[in-house]
Amino acid sequence: MTHAHITAWVIALILFFVAVSMQKGAKSKSQKIVHMTLRLFYILIIVTGAILLIGLSSISLMYVLKVLAGIWVIGMLEMILVRGSKGKSTGMFWGQLIVALVVTIYLGLKLPIGFMLF
Q1: How far is CA 95 from the centre of its chain?
Q2: Does the predicted TM-score (pTM) go above 0.85?
Q3: 28-54 and 2-24 are packed helices; what angle lies between their axes, rounded to 10 degrees?
Q4: How many domains does the chain have?
Q5: pLDDT tens, position by position, 27-38
């Protein structure tokens, strides 16, 4: 399940950057399709993360913090895309995205389940 979770994150980040790059052009229908596909990957990320969390024998505070940081990342991805499509400023959300992504990746690699890749 770890592979599915990591794969979903990687594909979601790729789709996010594709959707952001499509905002610059006039391809609003294509951008909406990519954005909706990205939302499907948000669900896959949450489901695979929940399965990983349920499979743990004991849940520590660090895992709860990782869950919250991961939800924070998803929230910032969505805020950047929605506000960007409306032509509003997204600078503050980009900063939060970077912080949340660094925290999430750090906790994902630091916690014991992060090394159970095989």
Answers
A1: 15
A2: yes
A3: 160
A4: 1
A5: 688 889 999 999
